[in-house]
Amino acid sequence: MFVELVYDKRNVEGLEGASEIILAELTKQVHQIFPDAEVRVKPMQANCLNSDTNKSDRENL
């Protein structure tokens, strides 16, 4: 299973290590629910959450 957070890079301009900070926090939160999930973050110009989970598991995220 994977969880990928796509975040708007414009919101964190000037913040050094933003990707690492976001990844660390997201990993901590996701692993509380799904300990074996692969967690990724991707800076783009939109916000979304991608995952290969089913609908009921996605509600937990």
From TrEMBL:
InterPro entries to which the protein is assigned, alphabetical: DinI-like_sf (IPR036687), DNA_damage-inducible_DinI-like (IPR010391)
Family annotation (SUPFAM superfamilies): DNA damage-inducible protein DinI
Organism: Salmonella enteritidis
Name of the protein in its database record: DinI-like family protein
Superkingdom, taxonomy of origin: Bacteria
Pfam family, one: DinI
